[in-house]
Every structure is written in structure tokens, then in C-alpha cells.
Amino acid sequence: MIEDIAKNLVHLKKEFTKIYDGKSQIQELIPVSKSDLFPIKQKDLELLHQFATKNPIYYNSYEKIIGRTLCIVYEGDINKYWLNSIQYDSSYQPFYPTWIMSAYVCVLLAKDLGYHEIIDIGSGDGRIAFCAKILDLESYSIEIDDMLVELQKLLTILDFHPHCSDAVAFDYFSLNLTHPIFFIGGLPQMGGTQLALGVMKKINSISDLKRNTGWVFTGTYSQKYQLDPKNEAGWGTLIEKNNLKSVQTLSLPTAWAFHEPEETPYIFTQTVSE
Amino acid sequence: MASADDISSMFYDESEKLENLINNATTKSELSLHEIIETYFQIMNVSSMAVILKQQLQADEHKILLDKIIDIERVISEKFNSSIHPQVLKKLTKSIQDSIKNLQSEDSEQKSKEDIENEAKLYEELRQKMSTKEFVEQYDKGLSHD
């Protein structure tokens, strides 16, 4: 079912890009109601809409039937956050969000894989951590940029625990994690590898946690970036060197790939049993 | 395969284009981003041709062309690398700083959809300046390794 929702969302996005004639920097959509294509609890959809409505990055919204799905289109601008982020030496990648619906689908899979806690690394406005709370998982949102963390605090309709911290220095032991999955919010070619390795080092130092931990990497098939010889959308070498195995990949719409023919692959991995 | 005459003719044409671009850069107080990219690409184009030609040409047979190569290399070194290039880098750096300052000072009160979308164009211009500066800095790194 999760794969079907992901495919239907990609199809919806492709239909949307054909008809979208606005000028906003970022844009995304959320279906209004539960349907055969999007068998998502109505209450969950309403919370996703609340997250978008309360979020100051969106300045306009309107209803639109796309394909045969009634959606609300949200138009936004993240330039001031980008301007702030380029002034951080240790910031890994300027803020560019995934779609709220994509975040929700990713968390559906994480829950289906049996994880108890979601830790969103480089969490931007906290949408992945927010979706985790919708799906009754514990969640923590780690973001280095104070301006974005202030934004997250406006969006804690559900408390997804925003933390303003450098993720490679954060004290994960204090969270008492049991079966966590980490979302790494950065492309490998834009500092994502360095970020992932830094967090892995911290997690591997916590007794028994390494074998219970999952990792989700945000990849790219874009030819703009250097390929990884081991593939996995840029993450193959890191996956192999860290004794991980890919368990599933979901391709989903994101703000940065809106005009791209390929969606953004999210690679779900776990530690290979010894 | 191109004959020596073809290569020679191509080099003269490309050198002339470069000299025009350098003269343009000398006379203008500020180059557009397009002009900056065009000038640097032409510098790299002519420099690469000069390296290849010098390896292939015989000093006694192709004296006139070799003299032209030496001449254009001197123009690149003395006019461009020593004078125009540092100015371009300095002006780009200043222009980026000014844009950032202006955008930071923008009133963040409630704005209309049109205001936000118009301001987004200024951010796009800033990103283009930053990307051009990165390109110019790559050239600069090449100079420091020479």
C-alpha cells in the first residue's frame, strides 16, 4: 500500500507540473480527502494541512483538482531562510524541503519497518518529525539553524521536539532510544555524507544501538552531481563501508526536484546482521 | 584532421575575439555576469589552444604564429590576470555583500504575493552572482597553481 501511495503521489506531481503556471519559489500539494489513490486517515490529512497553513513559508494556497484528486496547492518562499543558512560555516545544505506528503509517506514506511523513534537530522521546518508524531511515533528534530528552529516552534501543533544543535555533536544517549531510524537531510554531494558519518559515529558509540538503528538517506539521480561507483543514488559507498544494506527505496516529490524528471530517492537501510 | 593553416586561422579568430572582450572589460566600469562568464571562457579557450599549438609547432616553420601566441599570452598575463581578473573578483565580492545587506534589511512585515515573487527575483540574482564568483574563484585557484 505504501508503495502505491508513493507512486500515486509521483503521478499527481507530474500532472501538477504540467498545469502549474504560478511563479512561487516552492510549491506542493496535499489531497483534501481520503480516496482510493490516497487511503490516508482523514484526521492525518487534516493535520498535514494544518502544518502547511500555520507554516509561514507558505504565502498562498488554493484548491485545485489534479487528475481526479481534489488538492490544496501551497505556494511558498524560503529565500530568507536560505540567506540565513548560507552564513553558517557548519551548515551542510541550505534549507530546501521535501513535500509534506512525501515526508508522511516516508514515515509510513519507517513505521511499517517497525521503528519506534524518528530522528530528523537537518530537519528544516521539522516536517518529517511532525509526520512521525501524526503516526504515533516518538520523534526528535535536530536542526543547526536557529531561524529554522524558531520556525519549527511555531509548528508544534504536535510536539516533535525541536532541538537547535549541530547533529554531529548532539547527545543522542540522552534520548534513551530503543529502535530508532535517522533521516539524513542532505544530498551526499552536498555534505550529506559528512553529516551521516558524524551522526553514525555518535550512535555507534552507544551500546547495543548500532544493530537496532535504521538510516534513511536522501539521494539523487541528477546528472548535475558526481555519481557514486556503488550507486544507491549517491550513497552506495557509504552503505557498503558501514555494513548497511538497502531494504527499500521510495522515490518521492521534493521542492528541489519539482522541475526535474526524476523524483528524489529515499534509501531505507539497516545494519547487516553479524 | 584540421590542417596547420586551419588551426592557425582558428587561433587568430579566437585571439581576436578575446582581445575584443578584454578591451570591453578595460573600458567598462562593471561587467554583466554574462560578460564575465564569456570573457573567462574565452581566456580558457585561447590559453588551451596556445598550450596545444606550442607543443605541435616548429619554431622555424611557424614563427609568425608562435610570435602571436607569445603576444596573446602576454596580454592574458599582463592585462587580464594582473589587472582585470582581480578587479572582477573584488567587484563581485562587493556586489554580493551589498545584495545580502539589502535583502537582510528588507522589511519582513506582511507582504503581498506580488511583493514576495518580485523579491524572489533579487534572491535569484544573488544566487547567480554567487555562482559566477565561484567560477571566477576556480580560475583564481588555477592561477595560484601555475
Written description of the protein model:
The complex is a heterodimer of chains A (274) and B (146). The model of chain A has no long low-confidence stretch (mean pLDDT 94). Chain A has one domain (2-271): Rossmann fold, CATH 3.40.50. By secondary structure, chain A is α/β, with parallel strands linked by helices. Chain A has a 7-stranded mixed beta sheet, sandwiched between helices. In chain A, strands 1-3-2 form a 3-stranded antiparallel beta sheet. Chain A has helices at 2-19, 42-54, 79-85, 100-112, 127-134, 146-154, 192-204, 236-241, and strands at 26-31, 58-66, 69-76, 117-121, 138-143, 162-164, 180-184, 214-218, 244-252, 264-271. Chain A is globular, with a radius of gyration of 18 Å. Chain A contains 8 helices and 10 strands. With 146 residues, chain B is mainly α. Chain B contains 4 helices and no strands. The A-B interface holds A 23-25, 59-60, 75, 77, 79-80, 82-83, 86 and B 100, 103-104, 108, 111, 113, 116-117, 119-120, 123, 126, 130. Chain A: This is Class I SAM-dependent methyltransferase. Chain A: It comes from Marine Group I thaumarchaeote.
